[in-house]
Design a protein that fits this description.
The chain folds into two domains: 84 residues, 2-Layer Sandwich (Alpha-Beta Plaits), CATH 3.30.70; 36 residues. It has four helices and three strands, in the order E-H-E-E-H-H-H. This is DUF6164 family protein. InterPro entries: DUF6164. Keywords: Membrane, Transmembrane, Transmembrane helix.
Amino acid sequence: MAKLLLNLRNVPEDEAEDVRAFLREARIEHYETRPSPFGISAGGIWVREDDDVPRARQLMARYQRERATRVRSERLRAEREGTAETFADVARAQPLRVVLTVLAILVLVALMALPAVLIGR
């Protein structure tokens, strides 16, 4: 029975392609499901054979360690060079999204405080 190796929700395309590549290199049979049209499922990469699952998970764990190390070092380098994305950069690029996010946070905080305010009366 097939086992899910990687849920593709919020996975960058380069990471998904790397996973496909190392599965092909290891000759592990796999297939991919696409996201559902309504966003219920994000799709995934599945290993076909149960016998291949442990090896696929080992390869995935090694890949994730290597990727984490690489991405962290790239982030640190970008911070040192002053090219890392900051909150100000995001606010300038997507002001409406930032404002709506802040408003949503304020509404949620107000809703969480409401019971305490009502009990205190």
